[in-house]
C-alpha cells in the first residue's frame, strides 16, 4: 500500500477523539483561497489563533467568559491609570513594612504602639487581609480622640460580677486624663486620651498643683515686668506720670538718665511753666524715680517704721505703698533743709513715687560727687568746715540726722558742697538716730583725714561737736555703749509718754524730756 492510499484512508477511520479528527499531516479536504494581504494581516492571525484555542480547550474558554478581568481588558494607554496602580502597590509595601515594625517594637509588651495613623491603605483596597484593622474601624475621626464615657448618676454600670463603680481604677485614671485638658494652655499635657493614659489620683493632684503654681508664677513675673521699674527704664505707670507732666507744661522735655542707684533712677529734664504763679519751676530739673521693686527696700524699713512721722501709717500699708512713703519722706526732709538754708535740691512736685527737684549742675552735666572731684588744700579745708556747719544745722535746726552721709552723697558745685539723697534721714529721737549720726561722723572724718585736712576731728570729737553731747569715753567701744544707753532711755520715754520730746541735753547727763 502506497502512502497515498494511507493518507486517503485516514479520514475514514473509526470514531475517535476530537483532536484526532484533524490530522496536521493530512491533506486538507477543501482548499481556502485568500489573498496575500489577508495572509499578512495581524487581525486574521489572532482570529485563527482564537479559533484553534477554542477548538482545543473549550472548558477554559467557558470559564474565561465570566466576570474575571485579565490584563488585556485594562486600558494601559492611560498614564493616570498606570500611576495609580504603581502608587497602590507602593502603599501596600509601605503598610506591610509598618506592620513589621510594630510587631518588632511591641513584642510581648503590655503597652504597645501603633502606626495606624501613618498607614496609606486606601478604603477601596480589597486585597487587605481580614485580620488587619484599619484606622477607620477604630476611630470615626483620626484627628480627635474619643473621650472616656462617664458613669451614670447611680455611680455604677453593669450587673453582677461585671459591675463597675465610679471608683474603678481604670475609670478614674481615664477621667483624670480627660480632666488634664482643663489646665492652662501654657501647661503642655500631650495627647493622653489618644494613648489611653490612666493617671492615678496622686499623680493627677500633683500635676494639678504644679500647673496652678506655674500659672501663678507666670502671673507674678508678668506683673513684676509690667508694674516695676528697672535700671534705666520705667514701668508703664511711671511713664504715664511723666507724660502727664510734659503734657501739662510743667516739664518741657525729658532728655535722659543721668544716674542710677540701688533704689532710684534719676533723669534730667528741662523745666516748663507752672500752673500757679507763686510756684517757680527751675530751668533744669532732676526727676528721681524710686524703683517699685521691693528687693532693695527689704532691709531699709528700719529707717521709716520707727519714725514717729510715719509710724502709724507704716503698719497699715502694703509693701508697694511704702515706696511712695519713702519718696514722701525725702520731700519733707528736703523741705526742712531748704527752710534752714542748707544747700540741697529744691522740691518742685511729688507724684506718687516720682519726685521732681531742681538740677544740681549745668547744661545736662550733673555736679561731680565729692569723691570724684580733685580739690586744692584750701578748697578741701573750706569743704570740711562747710560740712561741719551743715551737720550742726541739720541736727539742731532741722532736727534731722542724714543717716547716710559720705562723699558719695555730697556734690561740689559753684564752690560749695550740696547734700543729696536724704530719703533715709531720721530725727535724733529715732531708736537708732544716734548710731546713724556716729556712722556719718566716722565717714566724714575718715574722708577728710585721708584728704590731708589737718584740722579734721576724729569721729568721737565730731559727734560731740555736732550733737552737743559731752560723751567722755576713752575708746570707741565704750563710746558706742553710752550712745546705745541714751537711745534705750529715749525709746522707753517714747513708749511711756508719747512722741514729742526735747532734744538731748548737752551737759553729758542722761537726756531730759519735756512732756
Automatic annotation (TrEMBL):
Protein name in UniProt: Serine/threonine-protein kinase RIO3
Family, as annotated: Belongs to the protein kinase superfamily. RIO-type Ser/Thr kinase family.
Compositional bias annotation for Basic and acidic residues: 136-147
Annotated InterPro entries: Kinase-like_dom_sf, RIO-type_Ser/Thr_kinase, RIO_dom, RIO_kinase, RIO_kinase_CS, Ser/Thr_kinase_Rio3
UniProt subunit comment: Interacts with CASP10. Interacts with IRF3; RIOK3 probably mediates the interaction of TBK1 with IRF3. Associated with 40S pre-ribosomal particles.
Top enzyme category: transferase
EC number: 2.7.11.1
Species of the source: Gymnorhina tibicen (Australian magpie)
Keyword NADP tagged: no
Annotated GO biological process: defense response to virus; innate immune response; ribosome biogenesis
Matching Gene3D superfamilies: Phosphorylase Kinase, domain 1, Transferase(Phosphotransferase) domain 1
Reaction catalyzed: L-threonyl-[protein] + ATP = O-phospho-L-threonyl-[protein] + ADP + H(+); L-seryl-[protein] + ATP = O-phospho-L-seryl-[protein] + ADP + H(+)
Amino acid at each position: 500500500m502506497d502512502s497515498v492510499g494511507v493518507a486517503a484512508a485516514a479520514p475514514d477511520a473509526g470514531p475517535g477523539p476530537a483532536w484526532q479528527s484533524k490530522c496536521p499531516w493530512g491533506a486538507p479536504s477543501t482548499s481556502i483561497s485568500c489573498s496575500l494581504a489577508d495572509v499578512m494581516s495581524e487581525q486574521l492571525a489572532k482570529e485563527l489563533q482564537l479559533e484553534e484555542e477554542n477548538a482545543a480547550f473549550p472548558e477554559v474558554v467557558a470559564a474565561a467568559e465570566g466576570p474575571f478581568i485579565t490584563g488585556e481588558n485594562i486600558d494601559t494607554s492611560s498614564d493616570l491609570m498606570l500611576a495609580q496602580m504603581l502608587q497602590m502597590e507602593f502603599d501596600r509595601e509601605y503598610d506591610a513594612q509598618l506592620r513589621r515594625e510594630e510587631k518588632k517594637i511591641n513584642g510581648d509588651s503590655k503597652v504597645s504602639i501603633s502606626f495606624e495613623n501613618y498607614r496609606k491603605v486606601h478604603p477601596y483596597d480589597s486585597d487587605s487581609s481580614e485580620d488587619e484593622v484599619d484606622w477607620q474601624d477604630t476611630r470615626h475621626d483620626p484627628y480627635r480622640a474619643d473621650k472616656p464615657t462617664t458613669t451614670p448618676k447611680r455611680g455604677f454600670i453593669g450587673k453582677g460580677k461585671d459591675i463597675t463603680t465610679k471608683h474603678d481604677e481604670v475609670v478614674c485614671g481615664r477621667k483624670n486624663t480627660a480632666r488634664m485638658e482643663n489646665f492652662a494652655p501654657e501647661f503642655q499635657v500631650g495627647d493622653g486620651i489618644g494613648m489611653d493614659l490612666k493617671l492615678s489620683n496622686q499623680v493627677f493632684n500633683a500635676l494639678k498643683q504644679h500647673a496652678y503654681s506655674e500659672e501663678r508664677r507666670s502671673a507674678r513675673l508678668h506683673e513684676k515686668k509690667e508694674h516695676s521699674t528697672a535700671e534705666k527704664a520705667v514701668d508703664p505707670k511711671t511713664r504715664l506720670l511723666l507724660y502727664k507732666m510734659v503734657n501739662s507744661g510743667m516739664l518741657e522735655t525729658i532728655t535722659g538718665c543721668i544716674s542710677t542707684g540701688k533704689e532710684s533712677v534719676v533723669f534730667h529734664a528741662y523745666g516748663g511753666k507752672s500752673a500757679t504763679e507763686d510756684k517757680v519751676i527751675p530751668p533744669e530739673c532732676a526727676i528721681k524715680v524710686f524703683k517699685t521693686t521691693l528687693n532693695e527696700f527689704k532691709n531699709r524699713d528700719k529707717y521709716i517704721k520707727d519714725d514717729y512721722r510715719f509710724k502709724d501709717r507704716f503698719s497699715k500699708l502694703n509693701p508697694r505703698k511704702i515706696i511712695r512713703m519713702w519718696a514722701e519722706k525725702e520731700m519733707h526732709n528736703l523741705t526742712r533743709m531748704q527752710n534752714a538754708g542748707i544747700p540741697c535740691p529744691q522740691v518742685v512736685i511729688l507724684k506718687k513715687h516720682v519726685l521732681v527737684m531742681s538740677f544740681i549742675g549745668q547744661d545736662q552735666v550733673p555736679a561731680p560727687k565729692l569723691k570724684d572731684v580733685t580739690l586744692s588744700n584750701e578748697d578741701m579745708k573750706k569743704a570740711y568746715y562747710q560740712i561741719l556747719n551743715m551737720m550742726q544745722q541739720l541736727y539742731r535746726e532741722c532736727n534731722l540726722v542724714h543717716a547716710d552721709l559720705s562723699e558719695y552723697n555730697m556734690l561740689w558745685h559753684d564752690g560749695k558742697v550740696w547734700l543729696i539723697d536724704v530719703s533715709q534721714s531720721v530725727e535724733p529721737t529715732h531708736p537708732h538716730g544716734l548710731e546713724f549720726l556716729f556712722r556719718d561722723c566716722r565717714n566724714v572724718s575718715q574722708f577728710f583725714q585721708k584728704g590731708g585736712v589737718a584740722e579734721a576731728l576724729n569721729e568721737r570729737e565730731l559727734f560731740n561737736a555736732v550733737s552737743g553731747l559731752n560723751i567722755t569715753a576713752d575708746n570707741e567701744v565704750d563710746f558706742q555703749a553710752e550712745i546705745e544707753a541714751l537711745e534705750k532711755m529715749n525709746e522707753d520715754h517714747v513708749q511711756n509718754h508719747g512722741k514729742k520730746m526735747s532734744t538731748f541735753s548737752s551737759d553729758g547727763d542722761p537726756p531730759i524730756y519735756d512732756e
